[in-house]
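Why does this matter for the project? Reviewers at the last site visit asked to see concrete outputs rather than summary tables. In response, this paragraph embeds two records directly. Each consists of the residue sequence and, immediately after it, the corresponding structure tokens. Nothing has been edited or filtered.
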Amino acid sequence: MSDPKLDLNNLNREEYERWLDKVQLPSPAKRQTECWHWLGSTRGGRGKGGQYGQFWRGKPDYAHRYSFEIHYGPIPDNYEVDHVCKNRLCCNPWHLRILPRRSNRRRVSHRKEVKWGGGTTKN
């Protein structure tokens, strides 16, 4: 996937500022490699995974989906945003990718042991 680019011309700046206020950013030197932790409210999630970050955009949405959309564009139908880092509260666009819904669900269900929130996994 290409590097994320923030399109400031097509961005609701007030919405973006509200989102950014709830994200704990690492130092600039580590922005690509470390998780951008969501500090706002959470919702959803099942099993060991726990909660996802919740962001209000006129309706409830997930914070990581918003991050993906502002950096890469719209998420196609029947696709989900996957956390490559395995941290459901991460909003770092370098840690996000889209997968067909079926592939993402199958990938998650095949994991034997997962430590969400810490960014590690064991297969």
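We now turn to the second protein, recorded in exactly the same manner.
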Amino acid sequence: MADLPSATVTIDDEASAFAGGTGYAVVMGCVENNDDITPRVFASTKSLISQHGYCPAVDYVAHHIEGTKKPVIFVGLPKATAGAVGRQNSTGVTGSCSISAAAGSNGVLEEVDAIVTVVADGTIGTDLITFTLSLDGGVTEKLVRLGTNNSYTIPYVGIVLSFGAGDLNAGDVYTFSSTAPMWDGGDLTTARTALGAQLKLARSFVIVGDMRDSDDADDVVDEVNAYETSNDRFVYARVNVRDHLPLATAAKVTKRAVGTLSLTFDNTADTVVRAAGSWIDDGLVVGDTVTFTKASAPNDGVTIKITTLTDSTITSTGATLTDEGPVGGYTVDGSPTFTFDAGADTITRTEGNWFSDGFRVGDSATVDGTASNDGTRAIITLTATVMTFASGLANESKRSDVVTISKGETMAAWVAAMDAEFADVDGEKRIDIGLGRLRKKSPITGWKFRRPVMWAASVREYAHDVQIPCWAKKDGPLSGWSNEDANGNVVEYDERTDGGALAARFTCARTYSNGPGGPFIALSLTRATEGSLLSRTHNMAVANVACSIAQAETENAIGQVLVLNDDGTGSAASLALIEERVNSSLQVGLLQQGAEGQRASKAVWRASKTDILNVPGATLNGVLELLLNGTLEKIQTRVRVQTAG
């Protein structure tokens, strides 16, 4: 059976490695709408939002187009893992209104660090309440007029703020955070196949969505390698590891019953019955801990745990109540419950999600505010509601708003953890893994979100020709990007002062000792074998251009009839014609002086003189000798101080 004629370029790692075109970035990420995994070219953010709605990947494209003036190929992926709201904290709300955040109809679409601060107070539904909203940890704020509404849909990010009945006081503060949605590996395969079916070349895949572990990175490596072997295309992928976790804290959520309460306490029935209103509408659920407050009253300070619940009746089996009522004047505060179990060594929560709050197996969680369980322990297993330790817990049940369960992760511990997690991705030249975050104002939302460092590296890279490293000092700090918090302190990972990421083979940011101020890319690294020229991303890009040229021009020899020598090898004159075609294109694509210089120092393709070509299906082999330009990384200067005379 005859095979389809083809030409193949194979990479020799010892000589060098290769990757494709120079113009397009292929951007992949979860989308709000039309997650059909279809590659489309977009030259404007407006048209992209019209097609797919908002998501972090769309926001990257906005930065890319703004910074490079170049179009992208965009592939919208389904949301395999939904974004979630976590770390809600309403302990700063002194009014009777209960504030909560939840996913909108399209799910949570963005990673935010939100602060709601009441400016003009009043009663929900009746007064013109205003508040400031920050989604970037207080770096920027926007004034929101809630008016007489009881909810507010935050534009773009897919989160709805709900305000329960009651009052808000000026200065009340409510905070929460959220995670962004994530794709899965199967959808990357579909995307890569769809890209292979199109006739558009690209320099890199920019894949938006944190690599949670090496399995995610392996999914990416599989696809960029398959793009070469199955699709004869040559790219590398830019991705980023998960964020460091310095302030993961279990949410502190409080709820307050509102209205004029007429309560009846029944010790025999273990119940508290209200004459009007609804416990459920006030946000209470089974498992919550509830405290009743009224100065000098029989049940003042009584705290019970809800075992069953209806609109009118709280039942707390085994509770100690004093018969009383009907009586008014009580304040009723509820909160989810943490139950500490000595036998199972678990902390079980009645509401919320450990994962959304930022906890992971292997973390050291610190408990504070309990009678018997304060201390730091390592998490050995974790579900959404149950955290398990090896030993050391005592039986106890506590309101979650008076207990703090948190974890910390130093920069050094984070880098070490990421180094260990992604060690098995070493030796892969088609992936560049970034570590760290930087802030930049979104061209779409106006918020200064913390974004993966690979976003800044990619935008800087596409502003130049392929051979120019994105870490060239002369190009100055990364335009518009910041490594500072709301108070102007450098808080993001800085290779100059923190160290460790480059040794672990991650692309990362740095500052310079004597300025100018602002972040730079320290180095942009692939995971190629350490010491290889291909461990520098810009060298990989140049080699990829060489690979694409050789692929295209050797394909042009398909069907050519060669004059052969008596032994079946190609004659020197016939092979020279093919070599001339390939080398002419290499001269134009790599060796001519462009606006930013030539892309390589030498590129020569030579056909094999020993291949037997007088049989069907014969293969003509060739070797491309590529000499990459040198890039200065180390410069040493000696200062000679002269004495007078």
